[in-house]
Amino acid sequence: MPELLEVRDVVAGYGRGPAILTGTSLTVRPGQVQCIIGPNGAGKSTLLKAISGLLPVRSGEIRFEGERIDGLRPDQILRKGICFVPQERALFPRMSVRENLRMGGYVIDDKKVLESRIEEVLRQFPILRERAHQRAGTMSGGQQQMLAMARTLIVKPKIVMLDEPSLGLAPKIVQQMFEIMHMLKDRGMTVILVEQNAIMGLNNSTWGAVLDLGKTLFEGPAQEVLADPRIKELYLGKAKAAA
Amino acid sequence: MSNVIQIVILGLALGGVYALMASGLTLIFGVMRIVNLAHPVLIIAGAFVTFWLFRLYGVDPILAMPVAAIALFCVGVILYKLIFEKEAASAKYSEMTVLLTFAVAMIFDGLLGWLFTNTQRVTTPSYATDAIFIGDVFIPTGQLYAGVASLVVIGLLLLFLQYTRFGYAIRATTQNRAAAQLMGVNVGLVSLITFGIGIGLAGAAGSLVSFIFSFFPAKHWEWIAILMSLVVLGGMGKLGGVIAGSLILSVIAAFVGAYIGSTWSTMTFFLALFVILLVRPQGLFGDKIEEA
Predict the structure, then answer these.
(1) Which residue of A158, B34, B40, B131 has the lowest C-beta tally within 10 Å?
(2) Does residue A132 contact residue A115 with C-beta atoms inside 8 Å?
(3) Does the beta carbon of A56 lie under 8 angstroms from any beta carbon of chain B?
(4) Which residue of A has its CA nearest to B176?
(5) Are A95 and B185 inside 8 Å of each other by CB?
(6) Distance (Å, rounded) from C-alpha B198 to C-alpha B32?
(7) pLDDT tens, position by position, A111-141
(8) Residue B187: its chain A contacts at CB < 8 A?
């Protein structure tokens, strides 16, 4: 079976600055929830930005279903079937919830299909229906995150990439976000999840990859990665040395 | 009382034209963060298109609006392709665009002056010098028609932005450029078309300017500060804000002109610009200063 997404030796960085990704590789197989963990500054978010096309790839290659996608614009990559929900959630603050959902389906040409999918999302998330006319920028952080994740259901991409969906949310709300993530997976999407909290992230995933200093250290089934002694070293190593 | 009504109506009519003049400017700023200092000179270019259509073929200036708009739309698209498309990648983008648009303003100023000289021009359709009386209220039809025509064009623009797919793309790009890309919007194309539309609006405004003011190429320097004050007042890049701001300021300027002196009428805009920047830099209708 061909890999769904293949990232090979990718080097990328911001503007003329130093490379943040220094040869990152990653393999994503269909139907997984793949969690990318690693300490602060490891390049997790940068990797997602490079895959989404927001950040140009300096060298290396990214293949989606065997086809090279590095060098394409973000809108072209979305049309291929990769949807990215960044940390900032990519909402339009002065548009209503319904308008945000409509923008989520911008690439859908058939108006009827678009409206029926919006209806579907609103049925699934009653809170969003209640607030359909409210400006997205005035909602709570949890509701905004819910909107950003629910919005991916409209285009039904093959891969959805979530950059720290739990960031800044109360524990109870975080649990809800993971439930939405599992719902996306149940709808047939492959999920790439970036998490600061390694234990929480891996416990909600099937596969894990560990990133440090812009390189992939190792990867494997989520529970094995979680049990790997190198994880403790990575997160606690410096603290131990200091003590 | 009739005096007050008259001042308000004249202020609103002129405000409508200012709103049209500033709407393209704010649209372009919203999508591309370009402060287009060449906007007023392109309004004058639109006025010249209208002037020659009127002089040579007797085309009514208001009917000439679509022609001026399309002609200037093309100018906008060419300018964007030539100058701004490459600049978008530059790290010093905003500084560069101010200098570049200033240069474009000087080039067009010189070009129009060379082609048509700096003599005062005005188109003279019959309604430009007419007036209607409603009771004691005296309204020059030229300004009335210009104000109404402006509001119609602005109304069409708002409908386009609110209800069409491309309108959604423009609004989305204004609010969050990266997010718009992630939703599948080709922001490069949106920028190109928006720049064309913005300059096209300048052309349409030029048609109206051709009969309510006399104009000449170098006149645009006067308008830069006025248009900037309107855009800042409305909250940079916010179309609704710039429309409301234009109407409010023009009515205030009309009162200042009537009761204090017409020299002070123009000063209203500059004073407003100072006060707004000091007291409420995000503009009357801006939520907060957004980091670009």
Answers:
(1) B131
(2) no
(3) no
(4) A92
(5) no
(6) 11
(7) 999 999 999 999 999 999 999 999 999 999 9
(8) 75
